[in-house]
Design goal:
single chain; alpha/beta; Rossmann fold; UDP-N-acetylmuramoyl-L-alanine:D-glutamate ligase; 2 domains; 11-stranded mixed β-sheet; 7-stranded parallel β-sheet; 16 helices; 18 strands; elongated; binds ligand NPW; binds potassium ion; EC 5.1.99.6; lyase; potassium
Length: 460
């Protein structure tokens, strides 16, 4: 699990550290790390252009230029604001033979030191025009300029980084936006209590049967999904639960025939009242929002076991707030909205996806999994994680139905709801990557790759 800290926290940690280390030493450590990664990317080629802004980010770039000059690299620098360029960095750069130029030219690598932690808004027009003229790969210092450091928001021109070299700790931009390959350079910063975390493969403890387990002890997942119009959602959600757990899966709803045909190992009933005992319910995929679905959701919320409410169940909760009353507040609930469903429930997501998910988690006393290119999971106690997997292969119809089934299986298996949502989001993207293998894959293919994803997770 890697921590991520907001810029204000990073700045204050840096200030504390600067008070006890020799002046300029942090910047030189940071810049040395940038130069090291630049040399690796250059792999023998010899021309670099620095884009230098008005603050310490530009100072890092100038010092990196100094270290690169000492390794014999030809380095030119464009000063976006010559009067405010970092004075010591600039004089070191000049001393080492660096040249000040007006155009990017045709370098092998460009180093983006336009703006770092103090960035606000997109690239300004002069910087945007320069970046537009770059044809070489870009190494971003700390973060790609033009992307908001705390939210990853892109609201205008920005730098598309091949690689980002950052210092001390990860900031939200590295988790929420595309920064290319991100490398962390140790400058001695040791912040505590991250604002949120990134899950890594090695963090995921998938529940598997122990020597004395049987089909019941591993947790029975109940799925209340699908309708005459959308039986496929039930097939995908139930199938995902079947494949994600060795425990039993019960299905209750109007798609029982389709489920029996595809998943003979499930126990199927037409109605929720005949379903039998389960340790967690999945509700919502493809159910529609009619009055019978309303009744199903109410029964599930009253059942006193963890519930994952997806798709139409979220819309129903938004439309009929009295449904919340059916829920025992101590019973865990996981909500898995995409942006439009989130808006129905809690208002617009806005630019800060982590803050939005966190606020909704507190308001609804539920784990909120906000779907997106980077999925955010927030718990009512304030914990939050971002799924660092960056593939877009899961962006296909039916993919959310599969995710709901995986979460349900993990909840039934006793995984704590916040982690159940995080593990499921991770396994979901991994399954999509494995199934896609470079070509588009339908949700049913994603679902079938769940065992391969779990195997890969358990091997790491
Ligand atoms: N502290 C430390 O110990 C260490 C810090 N380190 C480094 O310092 C960096 C932070 O430096 P920083 O705080 O000096 O500000 P920085 O991000 O360079 O911005 C400078 C100025 O740019 C401007 N500007 C704002 N938005 C803009 C935009 N969209 N487009 C264009 N310009 C924009 C705005 O000035 P304005 O023009 O508004 O007056 C702003 O004040 C950090 O990221 C890391 O690289 C490392 O050396 C490790 C040790
Ligand atoms: K930068």
């Amino acid at each position: 699990m890697r921590g991520v800290w907001h810029t204000e926290r990073v700045k204050s940690a840096e200030e504390e550290l600067m008070a006890v280390v020799p002046p300029g030493s942090l910047m030189r450590k940071a810049a040395f790390g940038v130069a090291t990664h630049a040399l690796r990317l250059l792999s023998g080629r010899r021309r670099v252009t620095l884009l230098v802004g008005a603050g310490n980010n530009g100072g890092d770039a100038l010092w990196a230029g100094y270290f690169l000059r000492r390794r014999g690299v030809g380095v030119s620098a464009i000063l976006l604001n010559p009067a405010k360029a970092h004075a010591e960095g600039l004089s070191a750069f000049r001393r080492a033979g660096g040249r000040i130029v007006d155009e990017v030219g045709t370098p092998d690598l460009v180093i983006d030191g336009i703006v770092g932690l103090s960035a606000r808004g997109p690239l300004r027009p002069d910087a945007a025009a320069l970046v537009e003229s770059v044809r070489a790969p870009i190494l971003a210092v700390d973060l790609p300029s033009g992307i908001d450091p705390d939210t990853g928001e892109i609201s205008g021109p920005f730098v598309r980084a091949h690689t980002t070299v950052t210092f001390g700790c990860l900031k939200p931009v590295h988790a929420l936006a595309d920064c290319g390959d991100v490398h962390l350079v140790d400058i001695g910063l040791r912040p505590t209590d991250p604002d949120f975390v990134l899950l890594d493969r090695s963090d995921i403890a998938w529940p598997v049967p122990g020597p004395s387990d049987d089909k019941y002890t591993q947790g029975v997942t109940g799925v209340a999904a699908g309708s005459a119009t959308y039986p496929g959602a039930a097939v995908l959600s139930t199938g995902a639960a079947v494949l994600a757990t060795s425990g039993m899966v019960r299905y209750a709803g109007p798609a029982a025939d389709a489920i029996r045909a595809r998943w003979p190992e499930t126990i199927c009933t037409g109605s929720i009242t005949d379903a039998g005992r389960v340790q967690a319910w999945v509700v919502g995929p493809g159910t529609g929002t009619g009055s019978s679905s309303d009744g199903v959701l109410r029964s599930v919320l009253e059942a006193g076991v963890p519930v994952i409410a997806d798709a139409d169940a979220i819309t129903l909760l938004a439309q009929h707030p009295t449904l919340w009353d059916a829920r025992d507040p101590d019973t865990p609930l996981v909500l898995t909205p995409h942006d439009r469903e989130f808006e129905r429930l809690a208002g617009p997501v806005g630019v800060d996806r982590v803050a939005a998910a966190r606020k909704a988690a507190q308001r609804f006393n539920a784990v909120v999994l906000l779907k997106g290119h980077r999925t955010v999971v927030a718990a009512p106690d304030g914990r939050a994680l971002v799924n660092s997997a960056t593939s877009s292969w899961p962006a296909t119809a039916g993919s959310g139905d599969v995710l709901s089934g995986i979460i349900g299986a993990l909840l039934a298996g006793g995984v704590e709801p916040f982690l159940a949502a995080g593990y499921a989001a991770y396994a979901h993207v991994l399954a999509a990557e494995l199934a896609a293998d470079g070509a588009p894959v339908p949700a049913s293919g994603l679902m079938e790759a769940i065992p391969a994803a779990i195997r890969a997770l358990r091997r790491s």
